Amino acid sequence: MRSAPPSPLAPPAAELSWLDLAESLAEEFARHAARLDETAELPSDNLRRLHEAGFDTAWLPAEHGGQGLSWVTFGAVLTTLARACPSTATIWLMHLGAAYGLVHMSDDANSRFFAAELAAGKRFANALSEPTGGNLFLLPSQAARPVADGFVLDGAKRFVSGCEAADYLLVNALVDDVPAFFGITPDDTLTLVPIWDSVGLRATRSQLITFNSTLLPAGRRCVRLTDEPNPIPVGLPFLSLGVAEAALEALRAHATSRIIPTTGEPLAGMQWVQFATATEYVKLRAATLLAGQTAWLADQRSPLTNPSSLEAKLLANEVAKDVAALGVKVGGGSGFLRSSPIQRHFRDAQAGALMAYSAEVCQAEIGKGLLAP
Ligand SMILES: Cc1cc2nc3c(=O)[nH]c(=O)nc-3n(C[C@H](O)[C@H](O)[C@H](O)COP(=O)(O)OP(=O)(O)OC[C@H]3O[C@@H](n4cnc5c(N)ncnc54)[C@H](O)[C@@H]3O)c2cc1C
């Protein structure tokens, strides 16, 4: 396939070895992606290998034991992983989001503790979304009541990716009517409810957790605001870009190999296929540049990072769905078979736009800003 020209937003040369490493891991991950989708097993080996290769801590600042790598490199690494196995990439992103959030928002002692646990290979997950709250995952409606050593939560959190393997959960709840965040160690007051029989991203195993008088210890409450970028808003657009790239490659492989009997030529020679593929390719390039700019803003510690991430997420989510839908059209009946990657990319492509902030919530925020009096 024609390759895109070099981007002004490419990873710095000194960090390219991380991208090479991600590409060699991704090659292996891609070999197991269809099986993991079929069985909906956690990709535990993939996650362990990412940890062993140093990826878990690489974007932490040096003061927390990391390499302080650029967020532009993070985007490129995440795209590579999502192209190979989007469930692995999603759990890894959520793991980093929870862990880095706890390192950056905790007091000094907890910050050191969580950074050391991350470096030791412990796993983190976000228990933020509430069944009734939907997209408002940062504005919990469930209140925790005060007790001697903290607060007690009765309630539920939904779609907690990778929760079955988590050693720590980032949990939020209302405390004195304001959202508060805690880093908790799961105990037997938590019950995992296996709701996750999903259409796409099946190996993320994003289950429901009920909290039955669970202690949110005062000593594990997040006490700081931080200017450090969080991996999740920066990374979500790149998850969709990886799925879109995989879908485009599956489309190309089918279109170039399928011979149409009436013409004796490959499907790729048909003008409608060329036109539609060109349109999606150009949209994908635009989405990649926009996501790259968001990562670059994160590298500048710009306050525009989060607003830009909504725009980048919206475009990347929509492009992934559009490319994957074109794949189904071009793939015909062959692409509709379970043995084809085309149908898997189509199912996986739906998830990005559903994950908070959903495409519609992004549109609402961007539109409100544009049309404000
Ligand atoms: C694969 C996957 C993994 C996830 N992983 C995690 C995780 O690890 N941790 C976690 O805490 N959560 C996770 N989530 C939850 C996710 O991020 C969202 O918080 C959750 O999916 C939103 O709730 P809902 O699906 O019930 O949608 P709802 O918010 O009920 O949305 C339903 C519809 O209403 C629209 N809508 C809702 N609010 C608005 C609004 N204000 N303006 C316009 N339209 C609106 C939405 O766009 C959508 O079309 C995950 C979700 C998925 C699908």
What does this structure look like?
By secondary structure, the protein is of the alpha+beta class. It has three domains: 13-119, Butyryl-Coa Dehydrogenase, subunit A, domain 1 (Orthogonal Bundle), CATH 1.10.540; 124-220, Butyryl-CoA Dehydrogenase, subunit A, domain 2; 231-371, Up-down Bundle (Butyryl-CoA Dehydrogenase, subunit A, domain 3). Helix content is 52%, strand content 14%. It has ten helices and nine strands. It has helices spanning 16-39, 44-52, 71-84, 86-105, 108-119, 231-257, 271-299, 305-335, 341-354, 359-371; strands spanning 124-127, 145-147, 150-160, 168-175, 178-184, 190-193, 207-217, 259-260, 265-266. The chain has a four-stranded antiparallel β-sheet, with no helix packed on it. The protein has a three-stranded mixed β-sheet with strand order 1-4-5, covered by helices on one side. α8 (305-335) runs antiparallel to α9 (341-354). The longest helix has 31 residues, at 305-335. It is globular and about 80 Å long. The mean pLDDT is 97. The chain binds flavin-adenine dinucleotide (FAD). Residues 94, 125-129, 134-135, 137, 159-161, 201, 204, 206, 351, 354-356, 358, 360-361, 364 line the site of flavin-adenine dinucleotide (FAD).
